[in-house]
Amino acid sequence: MAMMWAGRFSKEVDSKVNAFNSSISFDGRMYGHDIRGSIAHAEMLGKCGIISEEDSAALVEELKKVLQDIDDGKIQLDMNAEDIHMFIESVLTERLGEVGKRLHTARSRNDQVALDIRLYLRDEIDEIISLIKKLINVLCDTAEKHTDTIMPGYTHLQRAQPITFGHHLMAYAQMLLRDIGRLEDSAKRMNQCPLGSGALAGTTYPIDRDMTAELLGFDCAMINSLDGVSDRDFCIELASAISIVMMHLSRFSEEIIMWCSWEFKFIELDDAFATGSSIMPQKKNPDISELVRGKCARVIGDNMTLLTMMKGLPLAYNKDMQEDKEAIFDAVDNVKLCLSTFIPMLETMSVYKENMRNAAARGFINATDCADYLVKKGMAFRDAYKITGGLVALCIEKNTDLEHLALEDYKSRSELFDGDVYRAIALDTCVNMRSSKGGPSPDSVKKQIEYTRAALKKV
Description:
This protein has 459 residues and is mostly helical. The chain has 20 helices and six strands. A two-stranded antiparallel ribbon has the order 1-2. Helix 7 (109-145) runs antiparallel to helix 20 (442-457) and helix 15 packs across helix 16 (381-398). The protein is elongated and about 100 Å long. The model has no long low-confidence stretch (mean pLDDT 94).
């Protein structure tokens, strides 16, 4: 296929250079968005009298046919083409002859590429948000079943204070709500139309950029033509937002991996979301969670690729920017894949409530409540803290716990202790009394679920 730009050159480009230069293998996925942009451009050219209304109508009609033919598989993308933009234009020219050649009037590939990727990513953001909403709903559904399922809360991966499984899950729901907000912000800043920026300096034709922006659902046309073709902030911002989503999924995956182990055994994944060992018949490995954790690194790498690619580029367009698509497409593909797998994995997991409670019963995670018991009876917290620390040491020495330590041992440290201390440090009391906003009490978790569901309705 002869290159559209070949007029300046006296010899064919080396075949290896063509292969190196080609991007259709990855930008081919944007064929629908490229055609949408071309339809809007053709309509504007006709409306502004830059081409005849007859030619404009013919271009629009044929572009719609090309789109349908690609969708139906009647047209296969030519992997020898330089990119999707040149491929669509060549098909159009084959069908319409001279009329097809008029489509590129008042347009450059630079603003065309910038437009297509914005249109494509705008649609992808909607899909990612939809998947995150489904995941949050699964978290809410599961949390509702476990508002009173007591488990240890951890700091430094050491048992710290008693919480509930519902409380733990709702922490991830809040992270994911923030992820939706970041994605929405990214989409908002992305939603400006670069079409009409030309190669870098606009055009001498009397185009109507506001018309094409409106036809394509943008908030406005980009105000500076240099920025219009050279900006990839929107790719970097989206990759950053996706990296944070993946980081949250990776943290969750790490906990799922631990919870599945015999050392924890808080949950068990459905057989459909685990694998076995080639040599150890007893193994049930949480490979899906491990892959999510691994793919997080890959997506962070995509984000770094975009930042590093752009950091040294002068205005305006440079061929380096062709590398934007593989990186951002990879980030988009992987976050969608991970979310799509994570949702049913959580939906089908089994929760071992007794194992969670048994773990909470060990490790002195009610020590703070013991100190608070003394504080409520008038003692300064630092003194109560020191006394409780001594009681924990005594429990370790006697191989017991605070719930089973004799009352006389309590009274040996402070006369403020009485028989009601056992109720104060019971796990259910420890959780139920933590009713402050955002805490782990069943009522508090129910309010968190209610808040989260209400927030989702606004998305």
